[in-house]
Amino acid sequence: MFPAAMVKAVQAQIKGLPISATVWDEKALAKDGFGGILAVGMGSSRPPRLVKLEYKPKGSKKHLALVGKGITFDTGGLSLKPSESMVGMKYDMTGAATSFQAIVAIAKLGLPVRVTAWLCLAENMPSGTAQRPDDVIKIRNGKSVEVLNTDAEGRLVLADGLSAAAEMKPDLMVDVATLTGAATIALGNRYAGLMGDTTAIKLIEKAADSSGELVWHMPQPKELRALLNSDVADIANVKIGNRAGGMLIGGLFLREFVPEGIDWAHLDIAGPADNGGSAYGYTPKGGTGAYVRTLVSLGQALAIQK
User: Fold this and answer.
1) Over the stretch 37-72, which tens digit does the pLDDT of each residue have?
2) What span, in angstroms and rounded, lies between the C-alpha atoms of 106 and 267?
3) Is 81 a catalytic residue?
4) The pLDDT of residue 282
5) Would you state the pLDDT for residue 246?
6) CA 204/CA 201 separation, integer angstroms
7) Whole-angstrom distance, CA of residue 147 vs CA of residue 132
8) CA nearest 203: which of 165, 173, 167, 164?
9) CB–CB of 283/191 below 8 Å?
């Protein structure tokens, strides 16, 4: 699986459904200022893509935006992962896959809620053309990012996706990502870390509970934001040498790309996205499809809101 192949799979699955698709190739990404997605995909011979899917039924009053991390394979880039840590990195596109399957299910159910899904697709590879530690890139919303670790790439593609999704002024915006190993260390393999605004948190907690999926509300400590200060850009993507609060810092970085006035939540599904053990309940071995049900339930809740 690589970005263009995932685009083809998406296009095949939405045939016959009331879902429209817009695809940005590498030239369109450059023209429209998607510097995060472009930077992450620079090292690969298989260029990145951005896919916007939209389901807009008649009578819909609320608008849910989903933004999915879609790293089709993650080597870490020039900040190369150890070999054993690359095993399973084909699942680093799970956030995009989850967002995609959620909009498909909502469309098939005919729920009266508008949904846009942004699939941020890139392959993170090392090469002579790859982005480098110390590079400064510009995100869609105009903010600059100092890249200190190319293996913290998911937040770069999501920054572009969140910026674009926010331009449509949705009522609720949720990003979904296998963002940090720190989430798995903190919460294990069955809980997703949940961060964001109070209204969004409550809606997602209720949706997850009704769907039988597990989330855990994590804080966003303001004092940790200073760890991402940069002398040469608006923000850095990591703090070199810091090991504290990795999941929280990832969420704080993403918040920088959410404008005031839009309710937002971040789901770090690094643990539940891939089940390396035996199947349990409705959860298979391998890729689990976790949180599709939660997002569909969230769509149902928004559909009946006045």
Assistant:
1) 999 999 999 999 999 999 999 999 999 999 999 999
2) 19
3) yes
4) 86
5) 97
6) 5
7) 7
8) 173
9) no
pTM (2 d.p.):
0.98
Q: How far apart are CA 19 and CA 280, in angstroms?
A: 33
Q: Which of 46, 81, 143, 190 is catalytic?
A: 81
- Where along the chain do its domains lie? 3-303
Question: How far apart, in whole angstroms, are the C-alpha atoms of residue 269 and residue 189?
Answer: 9
Residues 264-286: tens digit of each pLDDT: 999 999 999 999 999 998 899 99
190 annotated active-site: no
CATH placement of domain 3-303: 3.40.630.10
d(CA 182, CA 194): 13
Q: Residue 97: enclosing H or E segment and its boundaries?
A: helix 94-109
With a CB cutoff of 8 Å and minimum separation 6, the contacts of 190 are 214, 271, 272
* Catalytic residue, candidates 52, 62, 140, 155: 155
Q: How high is the pLDDT of residue 208?
A: 99
* Ranges in the chain, pLDDT < 50: none
Structure tokens at 204: 């997602």
